[in-house]
Amino acid sequence: QVQLVESGGGLVQPGGSLRLSCAASGLIFGSNAMGWYRQAPGKQRELVATITNSGGTNYADSVKGRFTISRDANTVSLQMNNLNPEDTAVYYCNYARLGVDYWGKGTLVTVSS
Questions:
Q1: Mean pLDDT over all residues of the chain?
Q2: What span, in angstroms and rounded, lies between the C-alpha atoms of 110 and 48?
Q3: Residues contacting 53, CB < 8 A, separation 6+
Q4: What is the Rg, in whole angstroms, of the alpha carbon atoms belonging to the chain?
Q5: C-alpha separations of 62 from 3, 23, 48, 54, 87 in Å
Q6: Cβ-count burial of 112 within 10 angstroms (0-12 exposed, 13-18 middle, 19+ buried)?
Q7: 8-state DSSP, 55
Q8: Are 81 and 19 within 8 A, CB to CB?
Q9: Confidence check: pLDDT of 28 > 90
Q10: Rounded Cα distance, 94 and 38, in Å
């Protein structure tokens, strides 16, 4: 059974940085992607960044140049720099394979002075 556990959220001032990590277990060998999505209050969940098991990455336009996604065998991380209040949201780790999505419980990121 796939399990995803996020860590690293918290309160940060505008312009600051945070690093999110997601520890995965039960992953299935084969083509897959891991990534981060976020959901702000009153808004739909949206893609932040994804990375495939071969290293291909995809970023939302709003985070390009500020966020960097990386992964090793069982961990996916998101380095977030130059944060602004619009980045405030619950961030969810995602693992996707063969059309099936698995989700972590989320970690809250609050950007505020």
A1: 95
A2: 16
A3: 30, 31, 32, 33, 34, 71
A4: 13
A5: 28, 25, 8, 24, 9
A6: exposed
A7: -
A8: no
A9: no
A10: 10
